[in-house]
Amino acid sequence: xxxxxxxxxxLADSYALYLKTQNYHxxxxxxxxxTLHLLFEDQYQELAESIDEIAxxxxxxxxxxxxxxDFIKLSxxxxxxxxxxxxxxxxxxxxxxxxxxxxxxxGLKIVQKASDEASADLxxxxxxxxxxxxxxxxxxxxxx
Length: 144
Description:
This protein is an all-alpha fold.
């Protein structure tokens, strides 16, 4: 797999997670509504910025950015569940953050092998953010 293909997968996963997190932001309910509504908003807004950065890196490397139909094929992130309660949303997003970290680590090895240090730097930054996001989601889970 090439650096560009790895970046395309990371972009597809990021876009899918962005959409899912935004959906949960819109649909969360319960006693922790405000806290989770804001947490999800922070996370999807950060993802929106990263999506642009990843897409621009693909363009810098001379390739076109995939379209939505390609994202669906490339992504490992599942659709949002509109019937989930807040705890299920938190668990689902935490699982997806872990998927992101796993796929980013795979991508990191690929870009490092290709001596693509700029992409490696971008990916290392993304790993740090997704690890923190996962921690914040898991730390927000309260079950009776």
